[in-house]
Amino acid sequence: MTKPRSERTRLRRGAARAEYSNQALLEILDAGMVAHVGVTTPEGPIVLPMAYGRTDEHLYLHGAAGNAMLRHAIGTDVCATVTIVDGLVVARSPFHNSMNYRSVVVRGVATEVEGSDAKRAALRLVSNHVVPTWETGRPPADSEIRRTLVLRVPLVEMSGKVRTGGPAGDEPEDIHGPHWAGHVPINCTWDAPVRAQDLTRGIEVPSAVAALQGRRLG
């Protein structure tokens, strides 16, 4: 899809950097790890960072069953934003400094995932999005599932914004001036796994965890 899905997901500022392709948006969601989720509550709006998972149709969020923000989100319009910073852009004037980034904004009505099996499936998506160890760790107990609230937001109204490259807004009179301009890429990678101090000897690092080492984050 190359057009916005709704008027409220149409980019107006920096429209040339808009991304509406479904595949591109899903790829950004897959590369990210944290969604900042905004909810309007009786005490005012609040935004919290959350791990997430997805299918092609829904974004899944979770928290404690008593999480007040998530409780207020049920049946209401929420906004989830995922951002990956790829570098710093240094212009000749700080006024034109920027960042290279990939971001996705998802808007929609959050609904509660009900039923033990459905909640387990959703939590597996969230857990495995961060690191795929759902199958190699101890399965969550029924009591743990009951203590968890899971929400889903449809991946219908969403849009992205992507910036790459160097400075783009320097004034013509500054181009041949004495000030440096360029960009500084960010390259974050996972380090070697560190065993828990109380880990029983002889237990090997799960292959999914070991595979993180040296891999680029994002």
Describe the structure.
Helix content is 18%, strand content 34%. It is α+β, with helices and mostly antiparallel strands and 218 residues long. Strands 1, 2, 3, 4, 5, 6, 7, 8, 9 and 10 form a 10-stranded antiparallel sheet that branches. Strand 2 and strand 3 form a beta hairpin. The two termini are 23 Å apart. The model has no long low-confidence stretch (mean pLDDT 95).
> How many separate domains make up the residues?
1
Q: What name does the CATH topology carry?
A: Pnp Oxidase, Chain A
Relative strand content: 25-35%
CATH architecture: Roll
**Helical stretch tally:** 5
Query: Which class do the helix and strand fractions yield?
Result: alpha+beta
The average pLDDT is 95
Distance between the termini: 23 Å
| Portion of residues within helices | 10-25%
- Taking Cα atoms only, what radius of gyration do you get, to the nearest Å? 21 Å
Catalogue the unreliable spans.
none
Q: At the first level of CATH, what is the class?
A: Mainly Beta
Question: Could you give the count of β-strands?
Answer: 10
Q: Main beta sheet, described? A: 10 strands, antiparallel
Helix and strand string, N-terminal first? EHEEEHEEEHHEEEH
What is the global morphology?
Answer: globular
The CATH H-level superfamily is Electron Transport, Fmn-binding Protein, Chain A
